[in-house]
Design a protein that fits this description.
By secondary structure, this protein is of the alpha+beta class. It folds into three domains: 5-213, Immunoglobulin-like, CATH 2.60.40.10; 222-318 and 425-431, Conserved domain protein (Immunoglobulin-like); 327-417, Immunoglobulin-like. It has helices at residues 5-13, 26-35, 41-62, 69-77, 81-87, 92-99; strands spanning 20-22, 104-112, 115-124, 128-153, 163-166, 169-186, 196-203, 206-213, 222-232, 235-244, 249-255, 261-266, 270-273, 278-279, 288-292, 295-300, 311-322, 327-331, 336-339, 346-352, 355-361, 371-375, 386-391, 396-402, 413-417, 423-431.
Length: 433
């Protein structure tokens, strides 16, 4: 039921969420981004202009994606389902889950003052939980920012999860009375076993409590043991296993430790069926997690309900740098770059207050965040409160980080790269099923 326009979408969106999250950094990332939900208004306005452009591009493609008559009829019969489908247009796996009636309506709500939050429904599996909510306001709102969000069990204890993503920021230039969003939780260490839960959400200083119970059966994952290797430009890569869940597919990949290059993002990793139909990376959320420097778990859109006769894993383009050439070092006293990968792509270093920024020059747009860990001249870990990317369609971008109390850290500052516009390319196609 899906056309090849999903591939067009990927051109505009494939890099936006390409941050591979180390498992031991997830709690820190969630605490700073998910819990606090803090925003720099100056940066947010600049980000919004890019987001608006992306949203407009999405709209062009979304309106051209066709759904089957049966699916259209199914949506029409369920009040409010059309808004949920609109939220999922970026993920054909979740769309197929809804088409196969794997969606559970909840309909719990709470109203405080003039604002009501409605927990519409959920899609759940052993590995994850996606919640759909609606905010209804008696008066038009131009901006609504979600604060703290907690997922708890029936005893009131917060559930432990590996990663989470949340639509924290709702904006309307003209003002709206209704906003829709999603909250996604994924559980790494143990499967989801809780049935009775409580979602708590803070909005405009009020805490909303939305109890709900999962009544429908949760489908079990499908596991494929692979243990096959491929080589691209001399770099050996082993695909170990694929776990197919209704919400996403987790693919376990490991690079040979003796490789000469450090590998970063697998830009076009995808599943293919016998007809060449593709299920690409998650477009909105965590797309990968690091197990170690040479080992990852990649998350793809799910073909769980499609269940093709043949299934392949394919990838052709991987960001890579020679080992020993994977850092950017900045002398904060002289305000100069003293080391970076070959090519001089990072220029125009600027240090202003607690902000360190660079201009990145590439032939094409490169939307990836470049840095992971940061250390100072004494080997001390540097805390970064936020990072930013501002770019144009000519391949020029301003990127940087905000380091609270920057002056308290010893120069030079070393930025470990987690992405970079250098690639190895080849043909890799491994049969999974």
């Amino acid at each position: 039921m899906f056309s090849n326009e999903e591939e067009k979408l990927k051109i505009y969106n494939q890099e936006l969420d390409q941050i591979a999250v180390k498992q031991n950094k997830l709690d820190e990332a969630i605490e700073s981004g998910f819990r606090k939900a803090q925003f720099d208004k100056r940066r947010r306005k600049k980000w919004w202009s890019s987001a608006a452009l992306i949203a407009a591009l999405f709209l062009v493609f979304f309106t051209s994606i066709r759904v089957s008559p049966a699916f259209a009829s199914y949506i029409a019969e369920i009040p409010g389902m059309e808004k949920i489908v609109e939220l999922l247009r970026h993920d054909k796996g979740m769309m197929t889950a809804i088409e196969h009636d794997y969606y559970e309506a909840i309909g719990v709500s709470e109203k405080k003052n003039s604002i009501e939050i409605i927990l519409d429904g959920t899609i759940a599996d052993e590995n994850g939980l996606v919640l759909f909510y609606t905010i209804e306001s008696d008066e038009k709102q131009t901006e609504l920012v979600m604060g703290d969000v907690f997922l708890k069990n029936k005893e009131g204890e917060e559930l432990k999860y590996g990663s989470a993503s949340l639509d924290t920021y709702h904006y309307s230039d003209k003002g709206e009375k209704t906003f829709n969003g999603t909250i996604e939780y994924f559980f790494v260490d143990a499967p989801l076993t809780e049935k009775e839960m409580m979602l708590e959400m803070e909005l405009k200083g009020e805490m909303y409590s939305l109890p709900f119970t999962l009544k429908e059966e949760i489908k079990e994952k499908k596991t494929y043991t692979i243990n096959q290797s491929v080589t691209i430009e001399g770099q050996k890569i082993e695909v170990l296993e694929a776990n197919v869940y209704p919400l996403r597919v987790a693919v376990h990949v490991k690079a040979e430790p003796n490789n000469t290059k450090k590998l970063f993002a697998f830009e076009d990793i995808r599943l293919l069926d016998e007809n060449g139909e593709a299920w690409s990376k998650i477009m909105n959320g965590v797309t990968a997690s690091h197990i170690s420097d040479d080992e990852w778990m990649f998350y793809l859109q799910s073909n769980y309900f499609t269940d093709p006769e043949e299934m392949y894993l394919a990838f052709n383009k991987i960001q890579a740098l020679d080992k020993g050439n994977t850092v950017v070092i900045v002398d904060t006293e002289k305000e100069e770059i003293i080391q970076q990968p070959k090519g001089n792509k990072l220029r125009d270093l600027a240090i202003s207050g607690n902000e360190i920024s660079f201009n990145l020059f590439t032939e094409k747009e490169f939307h990836y965040g470049l840095f992971s860990e940061v250390v100072d001249g004494k080997g001390k870990n540097v805390d970064t409160s936020s990072s930013f990317w501002r770019g144009d369609d000519q391949g020029n971008a301003s990127i940087g980080v905000v380091i609270p109390r920057l002056n308290s850290y010893s120069s030079p500052i070393t930025f470990e790269l987690s992405a970079y516009p250098e690639w190895i390319q080849g043909e890799a196609k491994i049969r999974i099923k």
